[in-house]
Write the structure tokens for this entry.
Amino acid sequence: MKQTTPWQPLAPDIPTILETSQFPLDDLAAGHIPAVILRNAYAPEKCSQIVTDLTQRGLLFDPSQPMPDSFQDQLIPEGYYREGKDSVPRSAWQPTIAEGRSRIDIGSSLGYRGSDKEAFLAHSAETRTLFTELFPQDSPLDTIYDALQQISRDKRVVTAYEPDGRQYGPAIIRAHYGGYAYAPHFDSVRLRENRQNYAVYHFQHQFAGVLVFQNTTLNDQSAQSVLHHCLWEPHLDKHLSSGTFHEYAQEKDIDNIEIHLQPGDLYFFNTRSIHEVPGVAGADPRVVMATFIGFSSDEEEIFVWS
Ligand SMILES: O=C(O)CCC(=O)C(=O)O
Ligand SMILES: [Fe+2]
């Protein structure tokens, strides 16, 4: 809804953000601001080094070469998630079936794997081992967790865990090839995926924290996320699933903002805000480290998972 105060993100660094807002995460939770953006949170040269390393290790593929067969069964189609204990994937939107639009995940996605809890937690343990090996020092995980801790004004930021102590994956690396797009959607373990059997279900709010490692660019245009000034309500489902959200937003005069990021920039947003990342089929994939975040204003601990 259009308001007199512009809907603007908090940026560009922690001191400025904390001067501007007493509780940035409460502002995000309420939908008063679209995002918190930390520019240059992680060194851009380290970002490109990570992409090179992941490709050399065979965890990502070089898009200038034919995709190795070993990636075929790891490709994640657009829009997929699973609900509750279902093993059948659902689609958060009507995916565009197009050759080459695919995503590689390095890490354990609760949305994709969570329907089998034992398998998800076992996979998460492997991810933690892998990330320790990939990032023995200067870990981008620390950048995300430390930033969150500071903007929360010193709540305790931990990798999400179950009551028995078993942890989830600490974050996920996602590479989007060939113009992979996220159509307008929202993410919620509570309101969408119905994950009642997981500890993260109890939080009042869910955010995302995304650190960009590499942009994808075609004809000077890069794939960037768009946040709509609209928190999900059930009546929006018909527009999200049928792909008519843009028409709805126009009719209701809902504004939006493009969050333009460079490698090394980190942004946090409320995943209940309808959001999207239109695909741009550049030569290189858009590569990010992504997290979900569980937050309740009256709780000391903030959970991070993927
Ligand atoms: O990559 C991003 O910036 C956001 C992606 C997203 O919306 C998601 O993973 O659900
Ligand atoms: Fe999302």
The longest strand covers residues 205-214.
